[in-house]
Amino acid sequence: MAEQMDEETLLAEETQVEPAPQTLESQLAKMQASIERALRKVIETQGQLQLEVAAVKNSLKRGADQSDRSADSKRDSVDSKKARRSCEVCKGEHPEHKCKKITPAERIAHAAKMGLCLNCNGKHEGHCRRSPACPQCKMPHLALYHI
């Protein structure tokens, strides 16, 4: 009986220690298939994320475009209301910042007093979105403020 157990133990150890080449190949094939499936899933997920990012970017761009147009129309209506007021300097039919009788330095002081942006003549907080407007120096201010 001891001999029989030893033979069985030896057989079990042999099968565990050295697997057949076919078993290794099949395990390798399974691992490769699993890796390929995982890679396909990653690539698919990446594609979906890229589509979502593009959609969000487009949405943000549309929102910014609409707010720019809205700001422009508000600024235009505010500017037209200001144009109807008379100038406090010369009592003419123009806003003070466009008066020919005051210097650019006085215009800048007046704009600062009124809280106006020198780049767009609007009232807003933070950085002005309008590109530099001065044709002489390309700095972010209207030409009427150029010194």
Structural overview:
The protein has about 150 residues and is an all-alpha fold. It has a domain at about 60-145. Helices cover about 60% and strands about 0% of the residues. The protein is built from 3 helices and no strands. The chain has helices at about 1-15, 20-85, 105-115. The protein is rod-shaped, with a radius of gyration of 38 Å. The protein starts with a helix and ends in a 33-residue tail after the last helix. The mean pLDDT is about 75.
Write the layout of secondary structure elements.
Blueprint: H1 2-17, H2 21-84, H3 104-114
Region (Disordered): 1-25, 59-87
Biased composition (Basic and acidic residues): 62-87
Biased composition (Acidic residues): 1-11
Task: Provide a short characterization of the protein structure.
This protein has 147 residues and is an all-alpha fold.
